[in-house]
Amino acid sequence: MYDFAAGISFMEDSPQIPDLKEAWVKGYQSVRPLSAIDVDNLDTFVMLRRMALLAWIGSHIEAQEPQALAPDFSRVTAMLAERYLAQLS
User: Fold this and answer.
1) Contacts 24+ apart (CB under 8 A), 68-72
2) Domain residues for 76?
3) Domain count, the chain
4) What is the pLDDT of residues 57-73, one digit of tens each?
5) Gyration radius of the chain's alpha carbons
6) What is the number of helices (H) and of strands (E) in the chain?
7) Residue 54 to residues 41, 72, 83, Cα–Cα distance (Å)
C-alpha cells in the first residue's frame, strides 16, 4: 500500500488520484490479490506518506527543493488530513 502512496507523492490533492488509485489496484491485483482491508487502507498510507514528506521538508528546509515546496505544502497537508479524517466518520 505504501508503494501507491509513494507513487503519488507530491500530487495527493490532484483530481486524478481516484482514477490512479483504481488503476493501481487493478494492476496490482493482476499479479497478487488484495484484501478489502488492504484497499481500504490505501488512503491511510497516502496520509502517512504525506506527513512523512511534511516532516522531511521541515528537516531539510535549507535545501532548494524543500524551500520550493514549503509555501503550500503544510496548508494542503492540513486540507488532506481534514478530508481523510472526515471519511473515517
Assistant:
1) 69/10
2) 2-88
3) 1
4) 999 999 999 999 999 99
5) 14
6) 5, 0
7) 20, 11, 17
